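Review session, final week

We close the course with one last complete record, chosen because it touches almost every idea we covered. It is Zn-ribbon RNA-binding protein, a protein from Halorubrum californiense DSM 19288 with 59 residues. Go through it on your own first, then we will talk.
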Amino acid sequence: MSQSDSQATPQCVSCGIQVSGMNAARFSCPDCGATIYRCSKCRKQSNLYECHDCGFRGP
């Protein structure tokens, strides 16, 4: 997924729901700098995520 696709309809990288209008987090991947979105529920539960660009995995 390219960055332009994720900016058009931001989705939680853990569960896939659309996060626009939600209390979501947006941050850069620690390895490649790609933008990652996570919903508040997945953040609170410390669900694993994987960067779509480089495959970095984190809690």
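Two points worth writing down before the exam:
The chain has one domain: 7-58.
The radius of gyration is 10 Å.
Good luck, everyone.
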